[in-house]
């Protein structure tokens, strides 16, 4: 019998899931980042304490923090460097950021409404052409590579004119480890494609992604008709499917699988040093009523593709982008989604991605 094999810690885990199922369902958002933080705040503080922190030193005048009690958390999908090299947290702590040692290919702003009844994940294409302080016009993801988390936050704040209250960085391996912990993440691939960079064929139909295949799925750009936009759609689709599966009763009530899901993230996560355990506890409790249906994915609008000295870039539709982030600032993103419909590039179904 499984129950006879459970340790005291396992029984505590199972009890926590029963008491806080709604909280856990919500906090699986974005590779369980908030689940790790919120859940750990209740019964795994030692895991939270082990998550590396980075101190942010954002230069220049920053946008004002929201006064309407909404919250913006900047998310980065990044690599944590070559084997044997410094982690992101260690490089920041040492005070010497090595340009090019770490890259961020996924940029998302998590907006939580003031009433905590809705969450929006806003993807910013990595090739968006912007000004990076000290480096001129660059692809927006160059900010992380050149200057680390602080320049990354500064650049996103300048582009969006929004204050980022917190930062969470997930190593790319987190996608792989989460998929494995879930026993595979199921996605739908609508068309055949070939990723020439990794020599892998993707075939139309349902796919169960485990291990490195999950990583290849969320990172693919080559062979996709819309390049970075299709990759963003894949990442959002992966997150939505992972959220749904992680919230499944079988995963929530299986203490071993639940701990594996948490471990998949805690081992691949870095957050800002101002994100204290008490802040996390308060945030987790305020989000306890949120459900998967209350999460909307949006992608920043583009005007066109262009070739610049830094390579192929995306010229953002500045007018619509300002409208998007203005509605974030006023905590009224429903107005933006209602106005632009499919042009808002929302993803609320699983069968419309590459």
UniProtKB/TrEMBL annotation:
Gene3D superfamilies: LCP protein
Keyword Methyltransferase attributed: no
Record-annotated membrane-spanning stretches: 23-44
InterPro entries: LytR/CpsA/Psr_CW_biosynth, LytR_CpsA_psr
Keyword vocabulary terms for this entry: Membrane, Transmembrane, Transmembrane helix
UniProt keyword Manganese, yes or no: no
All copies of domain Cell envelope-related transcriptional attenuator, residue ranges: 103-247
Family stated for the protein in its record: Belongs to the LytR/CpsA/Psr (LCP) family.
Name of the protein this chain belongs to: LytR family transcriptional regulator
Organism field: Nocardioides mangrovicus
Lineage of origin: Bacteria, Bacillati, Actinomycetota, Actinomycetes, Propionibacteriales
């Amino acid at each position: 019998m499984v129950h006879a094999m459970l340790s005291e810690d396992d029984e505590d885990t199972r009890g926590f899931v029963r008491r806080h199922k709604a909280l856990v369902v919500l906090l699986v958002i974005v590779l369980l980042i908030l689940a790790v933080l919120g859940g750990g705040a209740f019964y795994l503080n030692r895991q939270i304490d082990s998550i590396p922190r980075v101190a942010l030193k954002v230069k220049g005048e920053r946008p004002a923090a929201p006064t309407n009690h909404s919250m913006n958390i900047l998310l980065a999908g990044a690599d944590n460097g070559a084997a044997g090299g410094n982690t992101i947290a260690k490089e920041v702590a040492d005070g010497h950021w090595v340009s090019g040692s770490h890259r961020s290919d996924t940029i998302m702003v998590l907006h939580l409404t003031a009433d905590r009844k809705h969450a929006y994940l806003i993807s910013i294409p990595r090739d968006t052409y912007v000004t990076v302080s000290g480096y001129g016009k660059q692809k927006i993801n160059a900010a992380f590579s050149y200057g680390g988390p602080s320049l990354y936050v500064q650049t996103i704040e300048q582009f969006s004119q929004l204050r980022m209250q917190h930062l969470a960085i997930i190593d790319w391996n987190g996608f792989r480890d989460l998929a494995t912990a879930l026993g595979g993440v199921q996605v739908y691939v609508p068309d055949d494609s070939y990723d020439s960079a990794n020599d892998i064929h993707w075939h139309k139909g349902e796919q169960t992604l485990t291990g490195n295949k999950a990583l290849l799925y969320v990172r693919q750009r080559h062979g996709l008709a819309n390049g970075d936009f299709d990759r963003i759609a894949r990442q959002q689709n992966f997150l939505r499917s992972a959220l749904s599966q992680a919230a499944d009763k079988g995963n929530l009530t299986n203490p071993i699988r639940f701990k594996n899901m948490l471990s998949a993230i805690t081992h691949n996560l870095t957050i800002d040093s101002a994100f204290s355990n008490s802040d996390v506890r308060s945030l987790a409790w305020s989000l306890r009523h949120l459900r998967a249906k209350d999460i909307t994915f949006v992608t920043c609008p583009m005007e066109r593709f262009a070739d610049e000295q830094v390579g192929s870039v995306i010229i953002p539709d500045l007018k619509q982008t300002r409208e998007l982030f203005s509605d974030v600032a006023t905590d009224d993103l429903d107005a933006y989604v209602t106005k632009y419909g499919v042009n808002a590039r929302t993803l609320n179904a699983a069968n419309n991605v590459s």
